[in-house]
Task: inverse folding
DNA sequence: ACCTGAACACCGTTCAAGT
DNA sequence: ACCTGAACACCGTTCAAGT
């Protein structure tokens, strides 16, 4: 009676995302996802080769909320916005955010967003080969910032020590000025640094 | 007879690192680390509160090979070198490299290296509060590049698709020019972009 | 003080059937 | 074609003893 009539990759990913939202990332086991759907754990293996592939699909699903970069905006604004949007979309689903950070999705949504990033870098004046490298750098940076946010937001107290460690060094600033590790401000700052580097690169090769 | 007389955090971390080097990261379970030492798995809990804390110690141990940045060098050269050195030290121990990337060590070695980074950023002309933010950005970038290298180097075929995906976009470069995801070149390029951004930031606030 | 051993409450995944 | 159920080979960790 607790069984759903259909089982598709999409209904499975939906159920897993829902479960992760409700009970956290560690709850997303094959057994408990199956429980959410009212089916046997093994039924999932008909639609995904293994657990990682299932989580990849959930991660991609979470990125549907990210708008495609608007070509009417300046390229640097587009890059900064897409970074913020990816961060926000991932953190809206804390259960899968860690997976998004650890394995940037390359499925449907990932490719859509990647194309927007690539176009923005082209408009920045980078040649295709440079744009590819810069896109990888940007993906890595977004992933890293997101990973920090995920851990800072959950129970990794170690991350609060980063500020303490740096703050304890000679000539450190008064504590109040520190940006929290994983904060939106710190994320935006890092992306801004990278975008400034891209601008310098584009100017250098122009 | 297969038992070691002493069990200390240091001998445990050594054994775990050795095991990881020999049999890979997944082999570093409490049970198998204990097997390497010839002791009961529960004996490890007398020296570490849980598995994560043990792996943190192993990760920090792997960073002993990273030289402290040489203050005689220009600040940007110092930053680029320490990034390369961290990457090399982590990849020299593939079993723990993923953990270094996922949880940048904050213990003894991490603090030593962090102090060197902070000093270099001060020499770049950044005020302490800015240097703290930039140091966090650099740590995030190194961690992200390292994470890419770890996955590209092991069995995550998905990562080779990144180039394919970007390469399949309109106006993509000829395939041969692409830097492999996770390569040393791509890592250095990303760090270089960030350092260029830091330089721009320092110039702007000078 | 330090280590052990059995047990608890789980995992992902394979395999042989079921309908 | 699609799903099930039992089983395999593991996990991290708690708890009550041992020496």
Result:
């Amino acid at each position: 009676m607790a069984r759903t009539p259909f089982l598709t990759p999409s209904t499975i990913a939906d159920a897993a995302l829902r479960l992760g939202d409700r009970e956290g990332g560690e709850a997303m086991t094959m057994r408990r996802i199956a429980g959410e759907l009212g089916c046997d754990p093994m039924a999932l293996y008909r639609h995904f080769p293994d657990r990682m592939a299932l989580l990849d699909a959930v991660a991609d699903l979470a990125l549907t909320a990210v708008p495609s970069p608007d070509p009417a905006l300046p390229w640097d604004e587009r890059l900064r916005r897409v970074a913020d949007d990816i961060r926000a979309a991932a953190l809206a689903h804390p259960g899968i955010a860690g997976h998004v950070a650890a394995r940037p999705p390359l499925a449907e949504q990932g490719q859509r967003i990647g194309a927007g990033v690539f176009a923005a870098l082209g408009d920045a004046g980078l040649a295709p080969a440079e744009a590819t490298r810069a896109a990888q750098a940007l993906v890595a940076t977004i992933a890293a910032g997101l990973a920090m946010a995920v851990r800072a937001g959950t129970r990794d107290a170690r991350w609060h020590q980063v500020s303490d460690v740096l703050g304890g060094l000679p000539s450190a600033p008064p504590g109040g000025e520190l940006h929290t590790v994983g904060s939106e401000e710190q994320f935006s700052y890092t992306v801004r640094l990278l975008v400034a580097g891209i601008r310098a690169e584009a100017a250098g090769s122009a």
Notes: Chain B has two domains: 9-48, 64-205.
